[in-house]
Design goal:
It is a single chain. By secondary structure, the protein is an alpha+beta fold. It has 2 domains: 40 residues, no CATH class; 163 residues, VSR Endonuclease (Endonuclease, Chain A). It contains 5 helices and 6 strands; from the N terminus they run H-H-H-E-E-E-E-E-H-E-H. The radius of gyration is 25 Å and the shape is elongated.
Length: 216
């Protein structure tokens, strides 16, 4: 049997690829493309998270990152302020979406979270689980004495960014002042008692890496 030339082999391979591509439907091709895009999204050091980190760092706040021993692994943990900050992507966490059950179930999209029409049931179930998990994790954190702040991706657009970061800073300072005042008033007589120490949490003794935004 005569051997095929290099040109003939390339032509034969090209025909096989065309036949393979032809067997894939447009829906399957779209699902594969979307899956590849979603898989490329990082869960840490995302652009929204870095904006918040650098913005708070430049305002004098210091924090630790991704405490694995706390529910939900908060993106930022500020022990001084008893606060955990979650920086959420609008799509993954269903920002402002509504799941309404009536005669039949349907979803109300928001401007920043559009549920894909392709494989819709999968995305609805996934986003609903994420929303329920977020709520449960923050409930657990509240029971442990932590305040929670959620920052949404859409709130970090250039037109809103500085306003959002200033709002976070204001909230953190308000939390510290409120908690510190309650601690000093702990004797219940309405008098400042400087001898009352700030309450300690087990999490404070855990080792967490300190963030260092050297490029700020």
């Amino acid at each position: 049997m005569d051997k095929l030339s290099a040109q003939q082999r390339h032509a034969k391979a090209a025909i096989k690829r065309e036949q393979s591509d032809a067997s894939i439907s447009s829906v399957e091709r779209e699902q594969a493309r979307r899956h590849a895009n979603m898989a490329a999204i990082r869960s840490k050091n995302t652009k929204p998270e870095m904006i918040v980190r650098r913005g708070l760092w430049s305002r004098g706040f210091r924090y630790r990152l991704n405490h694995k021993r706390l529910p939900g692994h908060p993106d930022l943990v500020l022990r001084k302020y008893r606060t955990c900050i979650f920086v959420n992507g609008c799509f993954w966490h269903g920002h402002n979406t509504q799941f309404i059950v009536h005669s039949s179930e349907f979803i109300v999209n928001s401007e920043c979270c559009k549920i894909p029409k392709t494989n819709r049931e999968f995305w609805v179930a996934k986003i609903r689980r994420n929303k329920e998990r977020d709520k449960e994790e923050q409930r657990k954190l509240a029971e442990m004495g932590w305040h929670c702040i959620t920052v949404w991706e859409c709130e970090l657009k250039p037109s809103k960014r500085e306003e959002t970061l200033d709002s976070i800073a204001f909230t953190l300072n308000h939390i510290w002042l409120q908690d510190h005042t309650e601690c000093l008033m702990k004797d219940g007589r309405g008098k400042m008692d400087g001898g009352v120490s700030y309450p300690q949490f087990d999490e404070e003794d855990m080792q967490m890496p300190m963030a260092a935004e050297e490029d700020v």
